[in-house]
Design brief:
Layout lengths: L1 E7 L22 H12 L5 E6 L8 H8 L6 H8 L3 E2 L10 H10 L9 E3 L10 E6 L2 E9 L15 E3 L2 H15 L2 E7 L21 H7 L5 E3 L6 E5 L4 E5 L5 E10 L4 E11 L7 H6 L1 H11 L2 E6 L2 E2 L3 H7 L2 H14 L3 E5 L7 E2 L2 E3 H7 L6 E7 H12 L4 H4 L19 E4 L2 E5 L8 E6 L2 E2 L5 E7 H4 L13 E5 L3 H11 L2 E3 L6 E4 L1
Parallel strand pairs: 1-2, 2-3, 6-8, 8-9, 9-11, 14-26, 16-24, 21-27
Antiparallel strand pairs: 1-12, 4-7, 5-6, 10-11, 12-13, 14-18, 15-17, 16-20, 19-24, 19-25, 21-22, 22-23
Helix pairs in contact: 5-6, 10-15
């Protein structure tokens, strides 16, 4: 028997092949194109097919944002149901809109969501299904679902209240031996990535439990196929032990694993993993046409003009903006200060595709620049905390970064991702990149006075950062003194309603020495 496992991960609500920066795009990703490729594979002869979604389907695009805000318009569950998945896994972003919305979405799905390492206090599994067993031509196939345990470090406590998050590795060690006894093939679908280099075994990040894929590969006996995600990397691993995949994001690839099972011998002869690139394929006609009215609603909604700019707020070079500050970034800082009353603000320029604002600002402009769902928190921190946070951000700069060659897909331990490099407003500071990392902040003042280690300061930042997200260990939930539960996209929209004409102001509080 030849079992073919097709999996997706981190599709993030990208139904159509568009990044929403303009109408009528046909880019090389999206579920409509991905499903078209799936339908071709379904027609192959002599294969048994299993289709698995590895999580992060519910949030991430303007379409999914629109559906959460306009629930009468439909649900991402309706879209996922059309694809024909056999089962799915929870991603960390599934929790962004709250437990009630998540549970309502799960109830609408026509396939089970498997998750063994998120439990209720009562001991019940959050989704009710830790694993599922499929029987194909007399062969039993087990799928164990796991999700990154690090969610409590990103979400507000009230959103995940009553839930317990266990280590994926420890959970797998408990379940896989049991599944080996009742199944012929054991698949682990893990919404998490790899914490170590797959060739050398060297750590590629601080080992904090966010990603446990390497440990699943080499510490848990009995896994035949490992499906991963979360990091948006492109991985098809084949070694003597196991086949493993990670298919990027937005439906850019389908992960395919072929399992040759010899029924007479009752064992797997071989497995083979590959990634199928989504490129110039035609979109699936049925899926595309079914949701065109919804797509048109979203596009019209995105094109609404919300404000105007006096001056220049366009971003020509994202690296220059990070190195010297930019009027767009300063505008975001002003929105954050206005919403919270804080005098100090920090934010990141998330995306290398960010363009800033033209003379007229549409909702499309807001959502394609501020790409992550985020609410705000105000933290009360010491001067030492602030200095450490800026030092952490200063680690972003290395030789490649300063030459403009940094890639956000670089997961080396010597750099940090774009969304984890923060700029500050309300304090004056200097970063000297010629100095060793950890010793680069040479000047830091607030209200024209040097910031001392014992000073107390209130700073507004994203809730993700306020709880320590991005390995900012100087921040945590205990230091949060105020929270604004409204999403930043809505805060920006509201600010523009009250200030329909904004001025482009170049910040002067930050100095970078090369």
């Amino acid at each position: 028997m030849k079992l073919t496992v097709l999996s997706t991960s981190d599709t993030h609500g990208y139904l159509y092949p568009t990044n929403f920066r303009k109408r009528n795009q046909s880019l090389n990703f999206g579920l409509t194109k991905l499903v078209s490729e799936m339908r071709k594979i379904e027609k192959e002869k002599d294969i048994i097919l299993l289709k698995i979604d590895n999580g992060d389907f519910l949030q991430g695009s303007p379409l999914s944002f629109y559906l959460e805000k306009n629930r009468e318009a439909g649900s991402m569950a309706d879209i996922m149901n059309q694809i024909g998945y056999d089962c799915g896994v929870l991603g960390n972003h599934e929790f962004n809109y709250g437990l009630q919305f998540l549970e309502e979405t799960i109830a609408k799905l026509n396939y089970p969501i498997v998750c063994a390492n998120i439990l209720k206090r009562s001991g019940e599994y959050f989704t009710g299904t830790p694993y599922t067993i499929f029987e194909k031509e007399g062969v039993k196939i087990a799928v164990l679902g796991l999700t990154t345990q690090y969610i409590p470090h990103w979400e507000k406590p009230e959103i995940i209240e009553g839930l317990i998050f266990r280590s994926a590795v420890e959970t797998a060690k408990e379940f896989v031996p049991k599944l080996r006894e009742i199944a012929d093939v054991v698949i682990v679908s893990y919404h998490g990535g790899f914490e170590k280099d797959l060739e050398t075994g060297e750590a590629t990040e601080v080992i904090i439990g966010e990603n446990e894929g390497y440990a699943l590969l080499y510490e848990v006996e009995g896994i035949d196929v490992l499906l991963t995600g979360h990091q948006h990397r492109y991985i098809a691993l084949n070694n003597e032990k196991i086949s493993a995949t990670q298919p990027g994001d937005k439906g850019k690839f389908i992960a395919r694993v072929d399992v040759d099972y010899e029924e007479d011998l009752k064992k797997i002869i071989k497995t083979h993993a590959e990634l199928i690139k989504i490129g110039k394929q035609e979109e699936d006609f049925e899926l595309r046409n079914r949701y065109l009215p919804l797509s048109n609603q979203v596009e019209d909604w995105l094109d609404e003009t919300l404000g105007k700019v006096e001056g220049n707020m366009k971003i020509e070079d994202t690296m220059e903006a990070r190195m010297y500050g930019h009027p767009y970034i300063e505008f975001i800082q002003e929105v954050q200060k206005n919403a919270t009353g804080a005098n100090i603000s920090s934010t990141a320029l998330f995306d290398d595709k960010a363009k800033g604002f033209s003379k007229e600002i549409s909702r499309r402009d807001i959502m394609t620049n501020y790409i992550y769902p985020s609410s705000l928190s105000v933290v009360s921190i010491s001067g030492e905390d602030l200095r450490l946070a800026i030092e952490k951000s200063a680690c972003y700069f290395d030789r490649n970064t300063l030459n403009g060659r940094y890639s956000e897909n670089d997961f080396s331990k010597d750099t940090i991702a774009n969304f984890n490099y923060d700029l500050y407003s309300g304090v004056d500071y200097t970063i000297d990149t010629s100095r060793p990392k950890g010793e680069r902040v040479t000047y830091l003042s607030y209200n024209e006075k040097e910031v001392l280690p014992e000073d107390r300061l209130e700073v507004v930042m994203s809730q993700y950062r306020a709880v320590g997200g991005g390995d900012y260990s100087m921040f945590n939930s205990e230091k949060i003194i105020k929270e604004i539960s409204v999403d930043m996209v809505e805060l920006i929209t509201e600010y523009l309603k009250n200030h329909p004409k904004i001025k482009a102001i170049q910040p002067t509080n930050f100095k970078l020495i090369k």
